Amino acid sequence: QVQLVESGGGLVQAGGSLRLSCVASGSIFSSNAMGWYRQAPGKQRELVATITARGRTTYEDSVSGRFTISRDNAKSTVYLQMNSLKPEDTAVYYCNLQTIIRSYWGQGTQVTVSS
């Protein structure tokens, strides 16, 4: 079984920065792609960024150039560095690990960006 635990969320003023972390249990972390998703009240969960086992990344258009996803396989951790935050970024952010047969989710961490 795999468990994912997010941390690093909080309240920040527009234009500020936060770094989210997600620590994965087990030994399969380095072999699978990871992603960050977010969900705002009344909206469906949306993909923010992904990173493959070899480090290839993709980003939602609205965060491209502002957010950076990275991973440290030795620590079984994926990060999301968020710069130039906007109020529209306010959401619960979830870590995801994708295998061939299923995905695993963390409990989420709240990010609130004030004006």
Q: How do the SSEs run, as a string of H and E?
A: EEEEEEEEEEE
**Major sheet description:** 7 strands, mixed
Q: What count of helical segments does DSSP give?
A: 0
DSSP summary, beta strand count = 11
As a percent range, the share of helical residues equals under 10%
Query: Averaged pLDDT, please?
Result: 94
Distance between the termini: 41 Å
Which band does the percent of strand residues land in? over 45%
The Rg value, from CA coordinates, equals 13 Å
Low-confidence stretches: none
How does the helix and strand content classify structurally?
Answer: mainly beta
Give a quick rundown of the structure.
This protein is 0% helix and 52% strand. It is mainly beta.
What does this structure look like?
By secondary structure, the protein is mainly β. The protein is 0% helix and 52% strand. The chain contains no helices and 11 strands. The strands form 2 sheets. Strands 2, 4, 5, 6, 9, 10 and 11 form a 7-stranded mixed β-sheet that branches. The termini are far apart. The model has no long low-confidence stretch (mean pLDDT 94).
What's the helix and strand layout?
Layout: E1 4-7, E2 10-13, E3 18-24, E4 33-39, E5 46-51, E6 57-59, E7 67-72, E8 77-82, E9 91-98, E10 103-105, E11 109-114
Parallel strand pairs: 2-11
Antiparallel strand pairs: 1-3, 3-8, 4-5, 4-9, 5-6, 7-8, 9-10, 9-11
Question: Key features?
Answer:
single chain; 115 residues; 7-stranded mixed β-sheet; 4-stranded antiparallel β-sheet; 52% strand
